[in-house]
């Protein structure tokens, strides 16, 4: 019958329990029918019929006793008196079943075959050692009952019950081990899935942090840097050239306005403001070039090839790359001319940012000096990270005094070209 141990073993097949229960009642009914047909006039008939009814009733009460005896805890079930030990309530129920069966067999040995399903109940209810002892006692008692019924010694009556008990015990032990292995495997899979989910969350968090740091660097930080430079320039000429100072202030205000728009869209995780305005990447680059052009520096924009639709993430990344590269030009190069060139090559799109500034040595470690990969901000490492996220390549050509060309090439798969 279902018991505390049965409930603790999720690997038990429900159909097997049903078969065992049906077998018990079939054997009990068969023995009772045989007794009624042959011994209804016996003086013990009333006691046998009563005991058979009591045994059937006790067996039926097994599920209710099992439910009351266990306390579920998530997927595992623990005994109310400690893990691995059956509770007193269930031991009392099992003792009552065994006692009723033993007295019944003493009065009518033909009921001894009901011991077969009781083997299964004992094995599921008790710890292994106690269960094996009880099964052995069952077997010996059945052998004695069968020999008393036959009125003679027969090897079959000794070997048969012993073989059945051994087979039932071996089958249960095998199923018990399989159930334990299955439970362990399920536990390992659940733990592995949780660890994988935790790893993915950590990786996603790190990737999002990197994305946010690059977004802040390429938008808010660069805008604030430009405003600071313009306001400092306005402060230097405020007394000598008020008109020029006002021009610097107006330009700083314009940058602040764009920074505000970027910050709002950044909070809502939308596309860059230039892209959201319509016109796609080419128009966004032209607008960027126009804003970066000053009296001291001219920035041009060229588009080669046949423009086509690009995935949003590619457009956003290339615009951020252009912003970062021009920020390096503005802050570090001292260039008087710069050029943005966007080239459509069918299966690839290329963005080149060239300037005629002082240049630098690309072989020097990042953070050394004041070149585009120098100590301020993310510089080239941030640009390179964006290109690598798109599966592209970044090339930097420069030398001291010869200007700089930063080239980002991003491959385009056919299915991505028409992506929204």
Verbal overview:
The protein is an alpha+beta fold and 420 residues long. Among the domains are: 4-153, no CATH class; 279-420, Heat Shock Protein 90 (2-Layer Sandwich). The chain is built from 14 helices and 7 strands. It has helices at 4-8, 14-39, 45-60, 62-69, 88-107, 115-125, 128-150, 155-237, 242-267, 273-276, 280-292, 312-333, 380-389, 414-417, and strands at residues 70-73, 76-79, 298-304, 337-344, 348-355, 393-398, 404-411. A 5-stranded mixed sheet has the order 3-4-5-7-6, with helices on one face. A hairpin with a 3-residue loop joins strand 4 (337-344) and strand 5 (348-355). Helix 8 (155-237) packs antiparallel against helix 9 (242-267). Residues 1-12, 67-83, 367-377 and 414-420 have low confidence and may be disordered.
Tell me the β content.
Answer: 5-15%
- Which consecutive residue ranges, at least 5 long each, have pLDDT under 50? 1-12, 67-83, 367-377, 414-420
Shape: rod-shaped
Coarse structural class: alpha+beta
Strand order within the widest beta sheet? 3-4-5-7-6
Can you tag this structure with a few keywords?
kinase activity; five-stranded mixed beta sheet; membrane; 11% strand; metal-binding; transmembrane; rod-shaped; Heat Shock Protein 90; kinase; single chain
Gist?
The protein has 420 residues and is α+β, with helices and mostly antiparallel strands.
Topology record:
Elements: H1 4-8, H2 14-39, H3 45-60, H4 62-69, E1 70-73, E2 76-79, H5 88-107, H6 115-125, H7 128-150, H8 155-237, H9 242-267, H10 273-276, H11 280-292, E3 298-304, H12 312-333, E4 337-344, E5 348-355, H13 380-389, E6 393-398, E7 404-411, H14 414-417
Parallel strand pairs: 3-4
Antiparallel strand pairs: 1-2, 4-5, 5-7, 6-7
């Amino acid at each position: 019958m279902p018991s505390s141990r049965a409930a603790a073993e999720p690997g038990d097949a429900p159909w097997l329990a049903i078969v065992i229960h049906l077998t018990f009642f079939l054997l009990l009914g068969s023995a009772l029918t045989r007794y009624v047909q042959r011994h209804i006039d016996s003086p013990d008939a009333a006691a046998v019929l009563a005991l058979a009814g009591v045994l059937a009733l006790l067996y039926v009460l097994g599920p209710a006793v099992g439910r009351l005896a266990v306390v579920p805890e998530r997927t595992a079930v623990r005994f109310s008196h400690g893990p691995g030990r059956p509770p007193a309530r269930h031991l009392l129920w099992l003792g009552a079943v065994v006692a009723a069966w033993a007295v019944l067999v003493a009065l009518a040995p033909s009921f001894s075959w009901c011991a077969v399903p009781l083997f299964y109940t004992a094995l599921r209810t008790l710890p292994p050692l106690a269960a094996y002892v009880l099964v052995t006692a069952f077997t010996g008692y059945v052998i004695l009952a069968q020999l008393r019924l036959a009125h003679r010694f027969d090897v079959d009556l000794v070997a048969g019950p012993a073989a059945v008990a051994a087979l039932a015990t071996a089958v249960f032990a095998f199923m018990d081990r399989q159930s334990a292995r299955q439970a362990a495997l399920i536990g390992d899979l659940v733990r592995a899935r949780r660890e994988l989910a935790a790893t993915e969350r950590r990786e996603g968090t790190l990737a999002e942090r990197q994305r946010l740091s690059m977004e802040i660097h390429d938008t808010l930080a660069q805008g604030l840097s430009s405003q600071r430079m313009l306001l400092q320039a306005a402060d230097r000429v405020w007394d000598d050239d008020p008109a020029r100072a006002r021009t610097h202030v107006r330009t700083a205000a314009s940058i602040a306005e764009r920074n505000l728009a970027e910050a709002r869209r950044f909070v809502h995780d939308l596309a860059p403001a230039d892209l959201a305005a319509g016109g796609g990447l080419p128009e966004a680059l032209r607008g960027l070039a126009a804003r970066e052009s000053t009296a001291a520096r001219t920035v041009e924009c060229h588009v080669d090839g046949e423009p086509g639709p690009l995935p949003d993430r590619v457009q956003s990344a290339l615009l951020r790359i252009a912003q970062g590269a021009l920020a390096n030009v503005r802050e570090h190069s001292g260039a008087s001319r710069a050029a943005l060139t966007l080239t459509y090559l069918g299966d690839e799109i290329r963005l080149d940012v060239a300037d005629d500034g002082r240049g630098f040595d690309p072989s020097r470690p990042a953070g050394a000096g004041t070149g585009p990969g120098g100590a301020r901000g993310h510089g080239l490492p941030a640009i390179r990270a964006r290109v690598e996220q798109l599966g592209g390549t970044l090339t930097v050509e420069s030398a001291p005094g010869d200007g700089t060309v930063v080239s980002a090439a991003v491959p385009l798969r056919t299915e991505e070209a028409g992506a929204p």
